[in-house]
Here is the input.
Amino acid sequence: MYIEHKLDGIVGPARIGRIIFSKSGKSLSYKGREFVTLDGRGFKANYADSETGERYWISGCKKDGTDALYSTTVEIDDDIREEYWIKIRNKPESKDVKSIKSPGKYSR
Here is the structure.
């Protein structure tokens, strides 16, 4: 999944990583942190960290790599990197690439 920490409300550091959904679907976890859905109440964010309240945009990965709304650097977790490049992006030659510069949906 694409995970972007909305530090300034619009754009922030981003990652591609494996998340685990709760049974109810109202929360998810990533690397020991729990995120709860904002149920449409967030500005450019759809989840919040359950402990800190910090806002995040978490979504499925796009095949073209334009996951971000605005240009940002995206780090790819080691445990998902090969799967991301081969199954999602269909670029097995890039399987060792650890980060990408996402142009963003609104940066074109």
Q: What stands out?
A: Residues 2-102 form one domain. The chain has one domain: 2-102.
